[in-house]
Amino acid sequence: MATIRRYVRPEQLRVFSLVFLILAIFLFFGSQIQGYFSVRIFNRVTSDVAIVAVVAMGETLVLLTRNYDLTVGSIVGVTAFFVGKVVSAYHGLPPVAAFTLAIGTGALMGAVNGVVISYGRVPSLIATLGLLAVYRSILVGAPTDKIVVAHLLPPWVLNLAGASLFSIGGFYVTPLLVIALAVLVVFHLVTRYLRFGRRLYAIGSNPEAARTGGMPVDRTVFLAFVLSGALAGLGGIMFLVRYGDLTVGAAQGMELNVIAAAVVGGVGAFGGYGTMIGALLGAFMIDLLDLSLLRWLQISDFWVGAFLGALILLAVTVDSVIVTRLRDIWAKGELRAGTARESAAAGKEEDGGA
Amino acid sequence: MARRSGWLRGWEGLLLGILILVVAFNVINARHYVGIQNLVNLFELHIEEIMVALTMTFLIINGEIDLTVGSMMGLAGCVMAALWEKGIPAPYGIAAALAVGILVGAFNGFMSTYMGLSSLIVTLAGLIGFRGLAFVLLEDRSVGNFPGWFDHLGQQPLVGPFPFAVLAFVVMLVVSIIILHYTGFGRYTYVIGNNKDVARYAGVNVRRVKMTLFVASGLVSAFAGLLLAARTGSMRGDTGTGTELAVITMVVFGGVSIFGGTGSMFGVLLSILITLNLRNGMGLLNISGDVQTGVLGLLLVVAVLVPTVGNALRDLFRRRQVSTHPRGAGEQKGGAS
């Protein structure tokens, strides 16, 4: 038992259960819907999910620190629209420059969030609630025409959407999917091994303790918001590539889907725990379930919201009831192991004395 | 305690100053601003939001939040509209809508108090979920043609120049002020918001207070949704979207701490008046609704930033004073730099 405890953490169980659930969903609907087991469903899901997943991983960085970033939907919209306008006007702009511009724009807005929240001491919920409206109104109030049209975009943007780098048995690996996986790898390593990443968890677990312990709390939270903004910017250009035609309402309300993906993926709503892969799987599971339900029940699109809300609630309840209890068991086990080691050490000392 | 009320008075003083500025601006810019008709109009255009702001004030002071209000407004309206569409008389539809409001409020309250989940997350899920249910009911249809008396109630003056909704708001405002500031329940609301555990040890029935507030919030939101349906004469699945943002902005701008425990109905009332007048003024200047929301968002952020920046500046000033005055060391430093 103790060895199991050492090698399997509750967080990992959470991710495993998510993988298991996704498999279960897949098998269940496979038995219900004819022709379900085709690569088409994966291709559909992955192309939609890549965007939400990238933004959700950025959001996770912020959630880990016990903060919320509600501006991501607006940042995705503003970046997609802004970059769309720029590349429509300057067709010669290389793709790399367009991506850099998108990420930079997002990071800039993230930096504004970060300054207001970590240096201005405004609670993140309020600050991002206000700024989400501010960013959106910058977009709406901008003195340009209110749409980006696909046929004015340079050819590389349109090609990127339909392109597949390579395919494994009809399963297309699209550039968007590759971007999402790259973000996953990078930020998995960051949160796992980098000092900055570990601080996110420490701050989220107990902000006061982290501060007392001498951690640069303000700087870390600021950086988390900048990175969240940058990833939302990346999500913005992915949004542009995927949809082409945009209005000023682009990606409105996306922050809710993003937070839903993270929470379903086991990222704690009060900070301190959660993984990048969880956020990605959460986004994947929501979309897979969504798509499968639509095909199974022939229900209309209108059910999506009702069902998503129920799913979040379920995930949070399960988390609070089961995972918290598991974590308690783990912690108690560790405590017992600790005291056992101590008493063993004490025993040895006595032996040595005698 | 004295210091806190002093700070609050300071905040409310600031709000009063802003209000006077905004009103003065409006009076100078718009010829028809002064007059009972415009005043009624001012309230009527956002009457649903400011109604919900009253219950939201209680909840936030109590240390909770209800993000479902906008979706609840939509859901209540859609329940009524869907039943009406099926040929069920409007009074039954209204009763059903209010019952749904109570149920949703009780559900939010149960999940947040008995299940020990954060109301932020519970109601975030509700914000998505209940809006989804509203869409399930009406899909992409728009239902109108409500009975004459229903539309009349929402659109025509009832007593003198005042429509039903405005009168209802005034009654609710008075009741809210009395409950929050002059009853034991109001004191409990503050005490729980300050420290839930202490309140519980002191024998306050924390769960009952919270449940009551969530149910009230659901009921008032449903009522506001019905008023909205009556005022606009039609109902769609997306009616009332984004109301939660406007409502929370108003409450927090009114000096209610998002962490609970502080704030007053008076501050919220001032904030409501500022918001209404600002919107009215911006409307007169032809500024679109989305940009208006942006300006209010900016106002919210700046309003919360001001005390922090003020404190930081004061600290900076004090530190400089301290370091330049004592024992000559400061003087040397000053000379060197």
Description:
- The complex is a heterodimer of chains A (354) and B (337).
- Chain A is mainly α and 354 residues long.
- Chain A has a single domain, classed as ABC transporter involved in vitamin B12 uptake, BtuC (Orthogonal Bundle), CATH 1.10.3470.
- Helix content of chain A is 77%, strand content 3%.
- Chain A is built from 14 helices and four strands.
- A two-stranded antiparallel ribbon of chain A has the order 1-4. Chain A has a two-stranded antiparallel ribbon with strand order 2-3.
- Chain A is globular, with a radius of gyration of 23 Å.
- By secondary structure, chain B is mainly α.
- Chain B has a domain at 48-243 and 257-266.
- Chain B is built from 15 helices and four strands.
- In chain B, the strands form two sheets. In chain B, strands 1-4 form a two-stranded antiparallel sheet. In chain B, strands 2-3 form a two-stranded antiparallel sheet.
- In chain B, α12 (243-253) packs parallel to α14 (289-324).
- Mean pLDDT of chain B is 86; it is low at 327-337.
- Classes of the chains: A mainly alpha (354), B mainly alpha (337).
- The A-B interface holds A 116, 120-123, 125-127, 129-138, 140-141, 248, 256, 259-260, 263, 269-270, 300, 302-310, 312-313, 316-317, 320 and B 111, 115-118, 120-122, 124-133, 135-136, 139-140, 237, 245, 248-249, 252, 258-259, 288, 290-301, 304-305, 308-309.
